[in-house]
Amino acid sequence: MKSFNNNKMKQLRFLGLALMVCFFPSCESDFLEPVPESAISSKGYFANDDEIETGVIGIYDAMQGINSTSLSDNRGVQQEFYLTEMRSDNTRTKSQEGEAAQFESYDITPNNGIVENYYRSSYSTIYRANLVLENLDNATETAAGTFEGEAKFARAYSYFNLVRLFGEVPLVDKVIGPLDKEIAYTRASASAIYDLIISDLETAIANLDNGPKTRASKAAAQGLLAKVHLTLGNYPTAQVLTESIINSGLFSLEPNFNDVFYNENNDEVIFAIAFNPGLASDSQDFSAEFMNGVGRTAGVNYVTDEAVAILEEKGGDRTQFSYRIDPSQMTQNQVIKYLPNGEDGGADGKTFTSDATLSGNDWIVLRYADVLLMHVEAILAGGQETSVPAALNSFQLVRDRAGLTDPVTTITKQDLLDERRVELAFENQRLFDLIRLGVAQEVLSAFSTANNYSFSATDILLPIPQREINLSNGLLQQNPGY
Asked: Helix, strand, or coil here: 26?
């Protein structure tokens, strides 16, 4: 059974929730030019540390998203798997119908509501981060640095996901008003977006210590920045950052792989987005969605035959905790890294003591195994193989935990891709790994052909939501292929 601890982050979330709903902006219109939901406005509210703290909690609340059946509510990270795992060769739908099936078949339209929701949710986080940053002068000197670090970490996290998923997007680094159309709808260059991401994360590293795992920290910023530099091909910098985390001695691999997901705030977790079970305002439904039949949508995230094959071949002890035959019909495989609240769903895989759509499993954004494998990638430095002892040691640690203890003497790029796939399966990493390591078009084309899908090179990026293009009155241009 999973243990859910009410750490400081989760307690603070409740303290600020009632107040935040009063003054945070509505996203019913354009989310880049927010309209207050009531007569109480955020303007003039953030006057001291306590009030700014509620704004910081509001940032995490936006990252978390709303557990809702409505796509008019910002879902945050709860639907990220559609845009990542389901566009890789790891998962697919059961029903192969509706908007969800567009992701697996690479037939996404600019009107896809899930894509629009993720785009809007990301900018909601960015807006809330900018709101905190705009009011730092009202904080004490001691608190201002921490608030700045947390806000800039969240903004960098959101922009890193946006630029990898959509390419060039509007760069909004301050609170803007209804007349700032050019800022809101002008697509900035990828280099400009990455410059902001790097600057924000460097500030976060300088300002933050290592505290609660569900709040931004120095190590979380170092890990995210390492992945940014790997994406940009800045391998020596990425190596230094990963080694800073490794040498800190603050993190280690959980001896039991399953405990990574069902023992929250464990030594392997570096940063996670927190959820609490039972309450719609603070729970999540991605656990239920991964279980297919018990979720809001009947049939998302079945495991592909290709993912099953590599987990069986190279997963070791991780395989039994990554997927299983769906007990309800015994022919398909379902993800089990996120069993709702740690329950197994009974004999039919669907009968839970608590409501599976109100689950409290945290979403792990960054963990130590990922950092160890990024360390290997940094040493590989875009090459085809490495035998550098430091890389071998990091790689071996991950494999040893999986019961694969045969000594590794050389690591190829394919070895790294395979190891990341089985270690981080269904954690929204596979698509980004394929892109970053330069094999997305090759791998996804072959996968598409084998499954009668329609992948082409332009499908690596998602479409800009058509609603945003319409609101821009011609300023915002669509990605090629859409």
From this structure: strand
In a domain, 390, yes or no: no
> Does residue 44 form part of some domain?
yes
Q: How many structural domains is the chain composed of?
A: 1
Give per-residue burial for 463-478: e unless 16+ CB within 10 Å, then b.
Answer: bbbbebbebbeeebee
Q: Is the pLDDT of residue 378 over 90?
A: yes
Please tell me what DSSP assigns to residue 114.
Answer: H
Average pLDDT estimate for 300-309 = 94
Taking residue 212's Cβ as centre, other Cβ atoms within 10 Å add up to 16
Which two tokens mark 474?
A: 């011609």
DSSP string, 341-402: GG---TTTT---SS-GGGB-PPEEEEEHHHHHHHHHHHHHTTSSEE--HHHHHHHHHHHHHT
The residue among 469, 464, 476 whose CA lies nearest residue 182 is 476
pLDDT value, residue 90 = 98
DSSP 195-261: HHHHHHHHHHHHH--S--TTS--HHHHHHHHHHHHHHHT-HHHHHHHHHHHHHH------SSTTHHH
Amino acid at 252: S
Q: Does pTM top 0.70 for this prediction?
A: yes
For residue 462, tell me if it sits in a domain.
no
Over residues 209-228, the mean pLDDT reads 98
- CATH at residue 61: 1.25.40.390
Domain that holds residue 30: 26-208
Report if residue 419 sits inside a domain. Answer: no
Measured CA to CA, the distance from residue 388 to residue 378 in angstroms comes to 11
Flag whether pLDDT at 25 surpasses 80.
no
Confidence of residue 146 (pLDDT cuts 50, 70, 90): very high
In whole angstroms, what is the distance from residue 382 CA to residue 377 CA? 8
**pLDDT tens-place string over residues 432-469:** 999 999 999 999 999 999 999 999 999 999 999 999 99
- Of 71, 82, 164, nearest to 120 by C-alpha is 71
What does the pLDDT average to over 414-437? 98
Contacts of 296 (CB under 8 A, 6+ apart): 69, 285, 288, 289, 357
Q: Pick from 356, 291, 365: which is nearest to 329 by CA?
A: 291
- Give residue 286's pLDDT: 94
Per the DSSP assignment, residues forming a β-bridge with 92 are 302
Q: Give CA–CA dist 260/361, Å, rounded.
A: 11
Alpha-carbon distances of 269 from 80, 222, 252, rounded to whole Å: 19, 14, 9
**Which structure tokens are listed for 273?**
């987005």
